[in-house]
Design brief:
It comes from Ramlibacter cellulosilyticus. The protein has about 350 residues and is of the alpha/beta class. It is built from 11 helices and 12 strands. Strands 6, 7, 8, 9, 10, 11 and 12 form a 7-stranded mixed beta sheet that branches.
Length: about 350
Amino acid sequence: MAQGGYEWAACIGRFQLFHDAQLALLRKALELAPRVAVLVGSAHQARSPRNPFTFAERVEAIRLVLDPSERERVTFLAVRDVYDEKRWVQQVRGAMEQLTGSPNTRIVLVGHRKDATSDYLDDFPGWPVHDVGRQGEVHGKALRAALYTAPTVEAGLAALASQVPPQVIDFLRGWAQLPFLARLREEWAELAEEHDKWAGSPYPPVFVTVDAVVRVADQVLLIRRGRAPGKGLLAVPGGFIEQRETAYQSAVRELQEETGFELLPSEMEHALKASRVFDHPDRSQRGRVITHAFYFDLGERMLPEIAGSDDAAEAKWVRIADLPAMEDQFHDDHFHILDSFLGIT
């Protein structure tokens, strides 16, 4: 065992993208314990300006920075976004117990209390916290912005060079040749333009939306988004609430406008089985968005005809059994919304 008699050190983060401060955190973890678990959050999210790198790409970038002896001591674990603090903590604890083989393993949690995003450090009673302290003014969001806004790839990499390990710069140089960066830059610009519209507001805006989860037999109705954010990604039908509508009325209207799905009002009311509010502060890249989701189960019947329209490039019925393999194709937290009603995971 290393310092303090710890058997494992745990580092939790999204690592989008891996920078010098996170490297200092990981190196401290390697000092404190003989084995280190790096728990990579947002592991199954679709590519987006906030999550440009897949789980495998982040693992590759971090491993490139470590020397061979360090790599042998580090294990990477994928952590799903569940937008529920209690369930997320259970997920992390379960992953560590499965990795170590025991619920009684001596684990030290290595991190830094920088702001509200670090509150998770207090959610693991029994795991002592080692705070590495401030490692300079390094922020992943600002680093991603530099990558998206620079006039050329090399200019963007030059802007990152003082805060990102050279091995990661080399990784990014190769990654930038893949067909993802141009789309991410375009979507980042569209989101920035939307945020700028509200810059003069006396209060930060809070948006209210609605979503409709519609099930028929063993299938669920999905759309493919036709506009940013999330253009080309899968989602449940939905949109913004109207001034003179209830949340339920807006959900039914958006469902009809985006998919052409329409039944008698009495049929829709009979099919409504549940409704829930999804309000995690980080659920949407647009900003603070609270959605009211309605779950309709029409039972065993022929699939109604549908067609994508309005903001939806496509509407289609998808077998619920096929959804787990499609998790990384969903916009924002829409897979989580489906999971909440359908019990996919």
